[in-house]
Design the sequence.
């Protein structure tokens, strides 16, 4: 074997997955067709839930300015209809103004620092999905090369060659319109932050820096082109003029891209020893930074599980929970982005729907529902818990500050090493004794809640012992007694360690 896991694609999803696997002790090779990063801004931020994922690995400060601060927006939108996300206590829309090339740079530096072998200029050609191993065939400057590994993960985007080669079913809806995305220079555009609908289509413009504007152009009645190359600035300028009457052809573009309203989700995230994550598993209309953010969360869910399988301690069926947990998230992603597309870029026929949404969004309950859906803050994995189980089971625990004998810490810092964490908040020696046989996979921390009035403390709902998975989701919680703790430990962390 050349490595434990091969990752195809060095975008945000692939790089995040590489880091997660390496934290779990797996060997990783990332192959990427491009010889250099694109340097393109593309995605301009990520959701609140993706911020949490980065933060639990200690990465969030790297996205900020010199002081580590981030531009956090409390206000977001659903299909262009603005509302305040703080209707959910402690929530926000996410981080703004962070170009995708910065995200990729931060994640690549992190993955390399952990030991990732990133091979650029390696183009995926084929994979043999064998019973006991996979064999990658790639084209390189030195000719065709082969790599053998236990598993391969396709993180190679919406046009995934891995997905097509392995034959994953990819049902959904075909595109009905093409759209342009570009960073234009020297055009002096009037800002249209949430878009402007005109008889000929919808345009959006937002300043990115001195004399640079991000634009989105959606022209009505224009079918999606069957293209193999990126569009030109001349195409963007032509569509802009037809819609607005404004001539921007005297400007230039740092880069130009295109996208459609196609909406597709694979029926399975795993076929044998090949898995998919990010856009390789789901494509949709870009809306609210959900594409990048969902891919990062796919990686956080898969990484520790696949590393456990490679290490040999994973309980039976652990890897199958990746599909079981993330496919329902993908289904809701398809639903909400398709709805936003109809409201946001639909023609005049969608005016009654827009008017209805504008009325509904005045209700706080509707705002809470939409905020949770777009941000991912409403995600709760179905662990098949008993009806009388703790309400936190399957959810992420909001950052909880804890005072220990060794000093102050919090759950985000405790997750930096991607281990499980057992929080003992009431000197529960019996719970600590139950967890002892898993000491190399689960960190046990005793202490007290630093602020009993905080949101996280109130979410505990009386629980004084909490078991967190490496991805930050609650596997077990109890106010008293240790019933179910050993079962949860075995379910997520395998058999007790020999001799423990």
Sequence:
């Amino acid at each position: 074997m050349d490595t434990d896991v091969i990752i195809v694609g060095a975008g945000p999803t692939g790089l995040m997955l590489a880091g997660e696997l390496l934290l779990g002790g797996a060997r990783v090779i990332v192959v990427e067709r491009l010889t250099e990063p694109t340097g393109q801004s593309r995605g301009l931020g990520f959701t609140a839930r993706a911020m949490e994922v980065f933060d639990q690995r200690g990465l969030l400060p790297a996205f900020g300015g010199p002081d580590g601060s981030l531009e956090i927006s409390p206000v977001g939108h659903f299909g262009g209809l603005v509302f305040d996300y703080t209707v959910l206590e402690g929530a926000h829309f996410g981080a703004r103004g962070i170009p995708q090339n910065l995200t990729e740079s931060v994640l690549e530096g992190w993955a390399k620092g952990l030991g990732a072998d990133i091979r650029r200029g390696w183009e995926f050609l084929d994979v043999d999905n064998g019973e006991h191993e996979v064999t990658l065939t790639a084209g390189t400057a030195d000719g065709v090369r082969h790599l053998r590994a236990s598993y391969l993960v396709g993180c190679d985007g919406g046009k995934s060659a891995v997905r097509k080669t392995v034959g994953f079913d990819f049902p959904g809806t075909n595109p009905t319109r093409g759209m342009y995305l570009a960073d234009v220079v020297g055009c002096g555009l009037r800002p249209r932050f949430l878009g402007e609908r005109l008889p000929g289509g919808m345009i959006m413009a937002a300043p990115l820096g001195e004399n640079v504007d991000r634009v989105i152009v959606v022209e009505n009645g224009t079918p999606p082109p069957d293209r193999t190359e990126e569009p030109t600035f001349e195409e963007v300028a032509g569509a802009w003029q037809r819609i607005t009457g404004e001539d921007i052809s005297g400007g230039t573009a740092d880069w130009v891209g295109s996208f459609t309203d196609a909406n597709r989700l694979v029926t399975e995230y795993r076929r044998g020893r090949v898995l998919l994550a990010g856009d390789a598993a789901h494509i949709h209309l870009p809306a609210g930074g959900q594409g990048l953010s969902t891919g990062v969360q796919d990686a956080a869910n898969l990484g520790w599980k696949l590393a456990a399988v490679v290490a040999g301690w994973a309980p039976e069926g652990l890897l199958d929970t990746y599909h079981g947990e993330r496919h329902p998230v993908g289904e809701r992603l398809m639903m909400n982005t398709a709805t936003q597309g109809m409201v946001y870029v639909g023609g005049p026929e969608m005016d009654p729907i827009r008017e209805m949404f504008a009325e509904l969004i005045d209700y706080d309950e509707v705002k809470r529902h939409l905020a949770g859906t777009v941000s991912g803050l409403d995600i709760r994995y179905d662990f098949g818990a008993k009806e009388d189980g703790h309400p936190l089971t399957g959810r992420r625990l909001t950052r909880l500050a804890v005072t220990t004998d060794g000093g102050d810490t919090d759950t985000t810092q405790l997750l930096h090493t991607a281990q499980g964490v057992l929080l003992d908040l009431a000197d529960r020696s019996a719970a600590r004794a139950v967890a002892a046989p898993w000491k190399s996979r689960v960190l046990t921390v005793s202490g007290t809640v630093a602020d009993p009035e905080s949101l996280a403390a109130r979410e505990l709902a009386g629980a004084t012992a909490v078991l967190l998975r490496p991805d930050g989701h609650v596997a077990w919680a109890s106010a008293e007694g240790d019933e179910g703790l050993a079962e949860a430990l075995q379910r997520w962390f395998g058999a007790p360690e020999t001799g423990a």
In short: Residues 399 and 411 are 6 Å apart (CA to CA). The longest strand covers residues 201-209.
